[in-house]
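mind reviewing these tokens:
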Amino acid sequence: MRPETANARLLELIGRFRGQRLLVAGDLMLDEFIWGRVSRISPEAPVPVVNVTGESYYPGGAANVARNLREFTEDTAVMGMTGADAAGERLRELLDNAGIDTAGVVRDAAATTTVKTRVIARNQQVVRVDRERPGAISEAQFGRVCDYLEHTVPAVDGIIVADYGKGFLSQPLADELCRLARRHSKILTVDPHPHTSLVWRGATAIKPNRIETFTATGLAHIPDPVEPVYRDEALLDAARKLRGLWEARCLLVTLGEQGMLLFDGPAAPLHLPARAKEVFDVSGAGDTAIAVFTLGLVAGATPAEAAELANRASGIVVGKVGTATVTRAELEATCGGLF
């Protein structure tokens, strides 16, 4: 297909994003950014002294996936759990202000909202501080979540699962999500976590990164990447095993600077080279990828077209500092010619 024809097709698909209805389920977090300047090294230890100039807060984890979706469609909902603490209240307020439906968010007084604090100086991350206490939902909360899914899943076009290993997702909940998606013929995509060992059998698509691909198939040793990617036999073998294990329609493996690798049907895997012109921050790049990839699928794109859109969006977001999103205009701009 000629580049101008392919770009016209991608523009058509982006135009369909606006009417799609999406639900994001997973671990909710608050991303805190402390911005500052470094002018000297501390006399107390060989570390930089950061003079703080500002602070900002953004939805993180599964909430950031929803935030990415909200750039393209107004009908976005999120399901997860927060504590009844100040961080949880701030996160809920951010989501409400963004127009994201939080009816599926469980507020638990016994839980601690996960907060990831990044200190940024000169557009570089100096350090990250995590405050978290992973915990599973109770039996009563599980029942309420299942009731929410029973009446929500029929009304959406697609479901995204963002597993950050913080405890909200369990195998019974994974089974329920897969069951309802099959029952109502909904697209279900999953961004898995390497250490939860959850099985998403029958999902439409799984989007692991390289480490997650090897770990999910039970391989303790992760070999070094191989160039070109299509000759990375260890990765190809692990990806095929994972796809067979979970019986997913397709598998999109994100590979950082190597781009993405799509497994769809019996055809040879499709390699999409990385499109980033400059990389400032990879925070949340996976969230952007799964959001745009899923939007593509629910809008009627082939997996290859959806992966191309996700690859372009990822190339944009890593050029921004902080937990950023891609706007509709930015993604459309990549279709004005070869990106």
The first strand starts at residue 21 and ends at 26. Residues 35 and 54 are 5 Å apart (CA to CA). The two ends are 16 Å apart (CA to CA). The chain has one domain: 3-30+59-332.
